[in-house]
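S1.2 Input.
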Amino acid sequence: MLFASAAVCTPTCYGLLTGSYCWRTWLKRGVVGGYTPSLIEPERETLATLLKKNQYKCGFFGKCHLGLNWTRDNGFKPTWKDGERLYRGSWQDLPPETGMKVDFLNLSLADHWTFVLIMPFLLLSVQAWMAHLHLLWETGARRFQTIKYRSIYDMSGGKEGSPRPGWAAPGFKIEEVDIEFTKEAIAFIKRSLSESPGKPFFVELCLSSPHIPWLPPDFVKGKSGDGPRGDLVVLADWCLGEIMKTLAELKIDEKTMVNFVSDNRPPPWNKRT
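S1.3 Output.
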């Protein structure tokens, strides 16, 4: 697993999915942003393409942070200030050669710009997914209204664990992203067994916790006794527990391999770790 060793998430995720050293890409340091094209090369073999050759159904859920292929206006270079304009373009899946059928994700992480949850060809918020779609239809393109995240969650004045300001879809709630990712991953598992009985499946569930911002949902607040970041560790445990419980209920826990790994470093102030 030495090929997956890195101090931050993008290169670690790349190594885990491809089995290739992260420095073989154009990204030589740091991470990609919410507007970056796909880091996985079209010709690169991935866990998903390999498993699909063996009849696996593959689904990706959670914090992508490997780039996506946005459709941009001619000559447009996306920035945070022009985020609303970017959102008015269409969204495309990862290149089909990667084998990663994206079902439900956030572009990078709950601390980076572009605060939306995505399903194929739809940009929507958690509220839209749970209630009704807040989408505007113009000239056949799917668009949605945006608001500045600053008006909701701006704690960028130096408070530990605060999110960065940026654009957000209406109803987007940082506290709920991992809960929704887990629900969608569970739904995929059940759907895979129902549609293809006896055939294997592969799920990658990439949680945002316990990365900043440290905004735990109410049901785990104070549970760790170690502050909001500790509460997000409890949330990560809960998400894993829901997956394990589902596997047991489906009576496939004894024949399902579960790998639980971290793609991130300790808190940002632990510079000597």
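S1.4 Remarks. The radius of gyration is 18 Å.
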